[in-house]
Request: fold
Amino acid sequence: MSQRPATPATTPQPAARAVPFGAAAGAGREPMSIALGLAVLGVVYGDIGTSPIYALHECFARPGAIPINSANVLGILSLMFWALVVMISLKYMAFILRANNRGEGGQFALLALLRPWQNLDKRGRWFLVMLGLFSGSLLYGDVMITPAISILSAIEGVKVATPAFSDYVVPLTIVILVFLFALQRRGTASVGALFGPVIVVWFVVLALLGIGGIWRDPSVFLAVNPLYGAKFLMHNGWTGFVTLGSVFLVVTGGEALYADLGHFGRRPIRVMWFAFVLPALLLNYFGQGAFLLAHPQGLHHPFYDLAPGWGLYPLVALAAAATVIASQAAITGAFSLTSQAVQLRMFPPVRVLQTSYETRGRVYVPIINWILMLAAIGLVLG
Reply:
């Protein structure tokens, strides 16, 4: 795809000027199409869509974890359900996505919306800038960690099928990382169109596996009652509080989702979440919980255990592909964040390429791409 500089290599753009919520051109009124929906799935929802592979498993698998019983399973599922409803459906979809600066989202977009600054003294301005930079640095850290951990964990899933491939996990992960970051120069639209159909299959499989698991024990729907989550925290004390760290794996990708606002716009992100992504995620989490209720004697891997014997190898392959795609949301979010930081003069002027002549927010930052690739490979090797 043809690319053109979005900002000169030597001269930074003037500081971004804030506009009222929803006042960006086209904000919230983006035309919806099948191609756009596929691109949104492939870029925005890969990260949060792969959390079912490990989220519930981590709640029970870590050292000193809580035992598998009806109260604990229903309590954790309740916490997961309400985390998705409150943090993603309510917080992000209903409120945060409205906070756009000329159609852009992310931490620096929020910072720009706080202008004009003349109402603040020097200390207040310094505090807000430091808060924005700290928040942005957390997203950069997430972009380094997400590809390394998600792809590595999926490739390690090959060992579930056969231990013979154990020695090839790290080299294969590095090869996939290089391919993923090399693909970024093609632009968000091309990458999304390539990844979108795979993610559609992934979410359909998530839903089908979840329905099969729920069939074993439909009482799992009791977890919709928030009292189960409250009782879980009350009865398990500090252990229950620590378990929240694993519970919140279900909302990983929320910040990247907001940072990707400039790539697609508010309406497509909302439509795909409520119509496709959220139902598939909830069905799968509840299916895994139903499996644990039906088989409380031990924990292997509830996600892979939902698959029939003949489907294990295809599921491992699909999970590996999905976790590669999961990294896409974080990577494109880092590009958007860098572009905004340059415009706000909070980042050195770097080469920013516009990958779409129709959508202003679709950018590619070569130096950030390769730095993140080296960091991710270093984490895998470490």
